[in-house]
Design brief:
The structure is a homodimer. By secondary structure, the first copy, chain A, is α+β, with helices and mostly antiparallel strands. Helix content of chain A is 28%, strand content 36%. Chain A has 5 helices and 8 strands, in the order E-E-H-E-E-E-H-E-E-H-H-H-E. In chain A, strands 3-4-5 form a 3-stranded antiparallel β-sheet, with no helix packed on it. A two-stranded antiparallel sheet of chain A has the order 1-2. In chain A, helix 2 (89-111) packs across helix 5. At the A-B interface, strand 2, helix 1, strand 3, strand 4 and strand 5 of A face strand 2, helix 1, strand 3, strand 4 and strand 5 of B.
Chain lengths: 190, 190
């Protein structure tokens, strides 16, 4: 990891911790700037293939427009009647969780001044498709359980690694979104 | 949408409904084939940047290996101390939800023989970053609420469109995963 120490920027794990503490102080002074609204637009293509566009979001009391959109194709593999033009939606859910736990660990370790040298994770989640197919009411449609395994090399004694890992579930927005039961409304737009 | 009618394949909404009903019959006969395990691997790159690889999954009592992996970069925008090398994890969560609701509507409409001509959706979700920053215990870390708006053109009377839309929340695995509170374990791999 690149490390720089100047008056303006102190990088830990690639995170500018001066800016991070600056953000925390700013939010303490004006909590309204912490209110974010994230957005996505999706277009159905054909069969299991659809495309999500990620571009703008709202935060710090203003709209943020990226110069270019991110385009993400989702599809199903042939065994699920698709053409494999992208990961399927439940694989995108694991992607969201993996990224969020990782970033939460990295940022919160940075705030504590703990250097992480490397981190790799693998995730697995179980779904019984009898739920999706509507064959059994007592089988959940979604993941029954998700397990994440973290390999990490950080500048702490081995016995403190668990503590670093726990920064993930403690602070991750996607972990919270999946484990807490978030209200989702789906409505017709006329 | 391309429509074909032969003995072997009848496409509705790009979904081979003969195969779909074949799958349903097969699962009724041997529920164990409906047990799937999806997987993801993630590598931390630097700061808010990390990369997820999606390749293999298990289902129908065997491992399925795609020829190529899907690589998905996640990062944070500059306002969240990243370099915008990809959508951020909470935007991936919206992507998962958008794709899953869409596919659930498309597949279940196909099973009912209902043709969908087009479908576009937009999603927004609210997050108060005081949670992630650990500034307030009473503020959730994740989405407070997610709203999805669906524009759809389908071969049903206008008053039945709501019913078609509702196939999404009724059957979508990601909708269920987000709204139900799924157990997630995060553990150190030694």
């Amino acid at each position: 990891m690149e490390q720089q120490t100047t008056m303006k920027s102190r990088l830990v794990n690639g995170v500018n911790v001066n800016e991070l503490f600056g953000t925390i102080d700013a939010v303490k002074g004006a909590p309204v700037i912490a209110k974010f609204r994230f957005r996505a637009e999706n277009q159905w293509m054909d069969g299991g293939h659809n495309r999500t566009m990620i571009k703008n979001f709202y935060g710090t009391q203003q709209d943020h427009k990226r110069q270019e959109s991110f385009m993400l194709d989702a599809d199903e593999p042939p065994i699920l009647l698709g053409k494999d033009k992208g990961p399927n939606p439940v694989e995108y859910a694991l992607t969201a969780l993996a990224g969020c736990i990782t970033t939460s660990i990295v940022y919160h370790a940075a705030a504590k001044g703990i250097t992480i040298h490397s981190m790799e994770t693998r995730l697995e989640g179980d779904i019984d498709l009898q739920g999706f197919l509507g064959l059994r009411e007592d089988v959940p449609r979604g993941y029954k359980e998700i397990r994440m395994f973290v390999k990490i090399d950080a500048d702490v004694p081995p016995e403190e690694l668990e503590e670093i890992i726990n920064l993930g579930p403690t602070y991750s927005p996607v972990y919270d979104t999946i484990t807490r039961a978030v209200p989702v409304s789906v409505q017709l737009e006329k």
